[in-house]
From TrEMBL:
<protein>
    <recommendedName>
        <fullName>DNA helicase</fullName>
    </recommendedName>
</protein>
<dbReference type="InterPro" id="IPR027417">
    <property type="entry name" value="P-loop_NTPase"/>
</dbReference>
<dbReference type="GO" id="GO:0005524">
    <property type="term" value="F:ATP binding"/>
</dbReference>
<dbReference type="GO" id="GO:0043138">
    <property type="term" value="F:3'-5' DNA helicase activity"/>
</dbReference>
<dbReference type="GO" id="GO:0003677">
    <property type="term" value="F:DNA binding"/>
</dbReference>
<dbReference type="GO" id="GO:0000725">
    <property type="term" value="P:recombinational repair"/>
</dbReference>
<dbReference type="GO" id="GO:0005829">
    <property type="term" value="C:cytosol"/>
</dbReference>
<dbReference type="Pfam" id="PF13245">
    <property type="entry name" value="AAA_19"/>
</dbReference>
<dbReference type="InterPro" id="IPR000212">
    <property type="entry name" value="DNA_helicase_UvrD/REP"/>
</dbReference>
Amino acid sequence: MAEGRLDLELEVQEIFQSIDEGRNFLLSGGAGSGKTYSLVSVIRQAILENPTAKVACMTYTNAAVKEIEERVNHKNLNVSTIHDFLWDNIKHFQKELKEAICKFRLY
């Protein structure tokens, strides 16, 4: 399916190749390079092609989270910072984590 999207940039085609193969992808670039714009385009296209799919999107900044949520308003889209994502997954294990950390010895 990625080959059929000839109007897209090579990097975006590679992202769709990853999606089509059920793989994760990393979109990286410097400040102002268009990462959020590209990500929004990819998310919109992915949702258009599969409206019932659940999409998880992790980014580094709250500003990017807000912008993506505003530009792609879809019930199956979950956008968060990587820090919030990790916290949501480990916060239920605080007691166990504390116990494990306390067992470490410094040499």
